[in-house]
Amino acid sequence: MNLLQGIILGIVEGFTEFLPISSTAHLVMTSRLMGLSQTDYLKSFEIIIQLGAILAVVVSYWKRLWQWEIIKRLVVAFIPTGVLGLLFYKIIKQVLIGNFSVMLWALLLGGVLLIVFEKTYKMDRAEPGDLAKIPYKTCIWIGLFQSIAMIPGVSRSAATIVGGMILGVQKKTIVEFSFLLAVPTMLAATGLDLVKNAGSFSSDQALLLSVGFVMSFLMALLGIKFLLAALQKKSFSAFGWYRIAVASLFFVLLSQGL
């Protein structure tokens, strides 16, 4: 991986992290288009640069992150993903991450589900609710929905937002909760990978990680604003059709030997 490739991956990660289109899928597809092999370092790179996106949430929602009632709900929602992620870490990294076919099918089927959800679920047009009053039982279920996103291509954002709305949480509230829940979730994932692999990175690889981190942070700030604006004007169907189109395109490219 060279510097330009690191910059591109950082841009892709940051902008797509909070959109319901799967940042992992976009990173893998972008890497494939650039001819990068899914080495252990590249897999770690794709995980660790999420720290930039985490920092973007911290900067954007600094005051909310320090509200005790919200913190308690984030901890409860994180528990299912944290436990399952720790149990299945090796399978996730060695089997699922980098499995192009699994990722594309998850991307495509997730797009179909977003469209079906849009058609069958009555969207809540009421005023946003209070993050600090989401029931703890609901938080646990949101965490379980989030854990589905351990399958690459599903999208953590899509799983938590759609899951939360199914559970009766208002749209703007669950979107913001999804942003905040990303902090402990991605911090745990990146922290675990750093602990296991930090000592194996060369100085050049550490530099690329730093560049990817910075670009991820900057683009995540834009991605957060874009999603909030998009959900006010457009439906989930747009993201669903996009997922289907991208997955279909890559299925064709895969058949051509990409």
Question: Which keywords apply here?
Answer:
single chain; 258 residues; mainly alpha; globular
Report on this model:
- It is a single chain.
- By secondary structure, the protein is mainly α.
- It has one domain (3-255).
- Helices cover 77% and strands 0% of the residues.
- It has 13 helices and no strands.
- The chain starts with a helix and ends with a helix.
- 43% of the residues are buried.
- The model has no long low-confidence stretch (mean pLDDT 88).
For the biggest sheet, the summary is: none
What is the helical fraction, as a range of percent?
A: over 70%
Alpha-carbon distance between the termini? Answer: 18 Å
Look at the helices and sheets and give the structural class.
mainly alpha
Number of strands: 0
Unreliable stretches covering 5 or more consecutive residues: none
Shape: globular
Rounded to the nearest angstrom, the radius of gyration is 17 Å
Helices, by number, come to 13
Mean pLDDT: 88
Element layout with pairings:
Elements: H1 3-16, H2 23-33, H3 40-48, H4 50-60, H5 62-65, H6 68-87, H7 89-96, H8 100-120, H9 136-147, H10 156-166, H11 171-197, H12 203-233, H13 236-255
Q: What does this entry show, briefly?
A:
With 258 residues, the chain is mainly alpha-helical.
